[in-house]
């Protein structure tokens, strides 16, 4: 057997990963037909919308979809047809943390992966390369192979590859255009290596060969969890140091700069913050914790768990700073929260630290006004209802309002909390904001974006993460 030349790709899951990843494959490989399928009709309709009102906001994505959609890129809810026509299928469905049952709160919920796999087995009538794109625990590919082999028609063979995605939201298109690396894991059998070569050939249309790494299946699966755990560990490390800075007068920016100059450490991912968010870091570390516990490695599990615990501590430490500074009570006070997305340049709020902050402020009976340039109002309400399970939406809406600009959000408030590092927050007219606020006026910067000295000159009382009153 020789490696097959891929001509038709199907991607199951039109989300933050499946959508951008396969749109870029379509753009870079005009000779390949790419169909992205999803069960969610509204999502598929948005991908197909005539005015390109796509279901996710990602810089550069609309331009990619405009070039490829209708040419060799299609979005559909016809999952079975997508599967049947393809010779290579990406499984890019969600793998959230389990909410109930064995491993609840830690293990990945593999139900969506299993359902997608079973669907492939049920409807495929020709051989397929099935690619795990979702982030999954080590050895998930084995379960997929067992399901496919037990249910498939005779004459169909399935080769399973692991091809984890490393894009970050907000920079997804740049990351996909020039990835640090593409990782493909396969069984080290002749068939597995052939399948690996077929997928590597797709990427080689735009990714330099030396950046396409081929490894064993289990190493590939584990590398994804490991990469996220180590990235998040850097943030928890710098955030732990930010607490020491605040207590001593050291400045976390200067500390990060100094340590990042060591070429063994490097400067990236050392920005102290109110805490990391996003759909991946916490979920994937908890998944690693669960894997470690299942393998009877309790010390290893405890080590990684601490990265998440430090993140929780950072978020609650920041809320406490706000309460302490506002004279130990925020009851009845008015706070503007600037930013609700988990990072800039995305409308995604999954695990956003802003949600925890607003929840904490509401439990202290403060009034909160939120402004975010990209997050939809409906998403904010959904997130707050989920974060405050015992409070009906009508009551939340008595305490929370949503503003259309920073200026509007900050008017008549006692304090401003910066929760997301949107570029427009760096360009705020602080004098006008100050003139319209109640005094004393406070700014709490959870993203290190303001010029504290300039704001103090305007009249603000300023607290920046990682900088104490003595720095
Ligand atoms: N979001 C990121 O930045 C990112 C980056 C790298 C890896 N990942 C991983 O990629 C995977 C997908 O993440 P996401 O953020 O794109 O999730 P998402 O929730 O945005 O998208 C998943 C989509 O899959 C669809 N789906 C679920 N089951 C299906 C089925 N059986 N048939 C058809 N469609 C189905 C859902 O309707 C949903 O639209 C996860 O495992 C995640 O950990 C995410
Ligand atoms: O120095 C830093 C860097 C990031 N963050 C925060 O960390 C979170 C995650 O940021 P980032 O990693 O840039 O975005 P994600 O989209 O969550 O991407 C991560 O998670 C993806 C999903 O697995 C992986 O594919 C990416 O490689 C990995 O960076 C955000 O809240 C950031 O504000 C910091 O606080 N300080």
Would you mind describing this structure in some detail?
The protein has 471 residues and is of the alpha/beta class. The protein has two domains: 8-207, NAD(P)-binding Rossmann-like Domain (Rossmann fold, 3-Layer(aba) Sandwich), CATH 3.40.50; 280-464, NAD(P)-binding Rossmann-like Domain (Rossmann fold), CATH 3.40.50.720. It has helices spanning 18-28, 41-47, 61-68, 79-85, 111-123, 140-151, 172-177, 190-203, 217-248, 252-260, 281-294, 298-325, 353-363, 377-387, 393-399, 406-410, 423-426, 430-435, 452-458, and strands spanning 8-12, 33-37, 73-76, 88-91, 128-132, 158-162, 182-186, 212-216, 334-338, 367-371, 400-402, 415-418, 442-445, 461-464. An eight-stranded mixed β-sheet has the order 3-2-1-4-5-6-7-8, sandwiched between helices. Strands 11-10-9-12-13-14 form a six-stranded parallel β-sheet, sandwiched between helices. α6 (140-151) links the parallel β5 (128-132) and β6 (158-162). α5 packs parallel to α6 (140-151) and α12 crosses α13. The longest helix is centred in the middle third of the chain and has 32 residues, at 217-248. It is globular. It starts with 7 loop residues before the first strand and ends in a 7-residue tail after the last strand. The model has no long low-confidence stretch (mean pLDDT 97). Its EC number is 1.1.1.22.
């Amino acid at each position: 057997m020789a490696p097959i030349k891929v001509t038709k790709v199907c991607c199951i899951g039109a989300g933050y990963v499946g959508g951008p990843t396969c749109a870029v494959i379509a753009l870079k490989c005009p000779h390949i037909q790419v169909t992205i399928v999803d069960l969610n009709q509204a999502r598929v309709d948005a991908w197909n919308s005539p005015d390109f009102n796509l279901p996710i906001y990602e810089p550069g994505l609309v331009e990619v979809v405009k070039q490829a959609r209708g040419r060799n890129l299609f979005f559909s809810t016809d999952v079975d047809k997508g599967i049947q026509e393809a010779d290579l299928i990406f499984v890019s469905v969600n793998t959230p943390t389990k909410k109930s049952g064995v491993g609840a709160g830690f293990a990945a919920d593999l139900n969506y992966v299993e359902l997608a796999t079973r669907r492939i087995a049920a409807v495929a009538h020709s051989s397929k390369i099935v690619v795990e794109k979702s982030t999954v625990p080590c050895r998930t590919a084995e379960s997929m192979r067992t399901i496919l082999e037990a249910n498939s028609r005779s004459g169909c063979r399935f080769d399973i590859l692991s091809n984890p995605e490393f894009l970050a939201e907000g920079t997804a298109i740049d990351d996909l255009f020039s990835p640090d690396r593409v990782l493909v894991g396969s069984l080290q059998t002749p068939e597995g290596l052939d399948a690996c070569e077929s997928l590597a050939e797709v990427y080689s249309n735009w990714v330099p060969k030396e950046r396409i790494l081929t490894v064993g299946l289990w190493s590939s699966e584990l590398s994804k969890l490991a990469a996220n755990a180590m990235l998040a560990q850097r943030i928890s490390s710098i955030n732990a140091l930010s607490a020491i800075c605040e207590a001593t007068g050291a400045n976390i920016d200067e500390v990060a700069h100094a340590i990042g100059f060591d070429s063994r450490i490097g400067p990236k991912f050392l920005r102290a913050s109110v805490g990391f968010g996003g759909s991946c870091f916490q979920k994937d570390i908890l998944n690693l914790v669960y894997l470690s516990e299942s393998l009877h490695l309790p010390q290893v599990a405890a080590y990684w768990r601490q990265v998440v615990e430090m993140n929780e501590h950072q978020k609650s430490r920041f809320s406490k700073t706000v309460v302490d500074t506002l004279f130990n009570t925020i009851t009845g006070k008015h706070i503007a929260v600037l930013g609700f997305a988990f990072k800039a340049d995305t409308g995604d709020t999954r695990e956003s630290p802003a949600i925890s902050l607003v929840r904490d402020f509401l439990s202290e009976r403060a009034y909160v006004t939120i402004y975010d340039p990209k997050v939809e109002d409906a998403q904010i309400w959904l997130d707050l209802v989920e974060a405050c399970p015992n409070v009906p939406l009508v009551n939340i809406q008595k305490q929370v309002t949503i503003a259309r600009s920073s200026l509007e959000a900050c008017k008549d408030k006692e304090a401003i909390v910066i929760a997301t590092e949107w570029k427009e927050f760096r360009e705020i007219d602080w004098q006008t904001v100050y003139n319209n606020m109640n005094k004393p006026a406070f700014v709490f910067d959870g993203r290190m974006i303001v010029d504290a000295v300039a704001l103090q000159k305007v009249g603000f009382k300023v607290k920046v993460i990682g900088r104490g009153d003595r720095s």
